[in-house]
Amino acid sequence: xxxxxxxxxxxxxxxxxxxxxxxxxxxxxxxxxxxxxxxxxxxxxxxxxxxxxxxxxxxxxxxxxxxxxxxxxxxxxxxxxxxxxxxxxxxxxxxxxxxxxxxxxxxxxxxxxxxxxxxxxxxxxxxxxxxxxxxxxxxxxxxxxxxxxxxxxxxxxxxxxxxxxxxxxxxxxxxxxxxxxxxxxxxxxxxxxxxxxxxxxxxxxxxxxxxxxxxxxxxxxxxxxxxxxxxxxxxxxxx
Length: 239
Prior knowledge:
Blueprint: E1 7-8, E2 11-12, H1 17-20, H2 29-37, H3 42-51, H4 53-59, E3 67-71, H5 77-82, E4 88-93, H6 96-105, E5 112-116, E6 130-135, H7 144-157, E7 158-169, H8 175-185, H9 191-195, H10 203-213, E8 215-217, E9 223-225, E10 228-235
Parallel strand pairs: 3-4, 3-6, 4-5, 6-7
Antiparallel strand pairs: 1-2, 7-10, 8-10, 9-10
């Protein structure tokens, strides 16, 4: 054994879960958009993001004193707008190319900072340093292990009473057909490509993972749009 990573048909096989995150790196605008929203047209994607600004601000009770983080900040279009409503905003992403794009998008927003997530699920961030956080279209790609590791760190970096809003997938009229499309692609897919596949965690599993991580659902916060689910979690107040 030489210690070198074996190759199959000339393709280097990643040796760690962290290396699989290369699937989120891109070189051109088309590659960026596919990683952001699959094959959803860009104008529809941007319209959706603009429409979620008030949703996030309301669910997280954002104000001028809020320290906020975005997990999977992508190109930074939401961070650019939300930065105007909060004290500070941290863009965190596994992709260096997306962080570079977010820096450009948020140019001039002095209260926005950037963090590269390595294979540590936010472990480098200080404890109890944020009032709120959110992630859109991140947990839809995570398996149960990854979801738990992120939720555990999210609980740690939130202050008591802090909230976290995210979306995930359950089976429904919208997501059911998508599941069967991925089933067709799965048997012959490259391991790196599988990292970018969508993942059906389901509401029951998500709530149990959140409880295991020490987070509780905010009553009445769950929404289900044909299997695309939104939920806000809270770190409970502590004595």
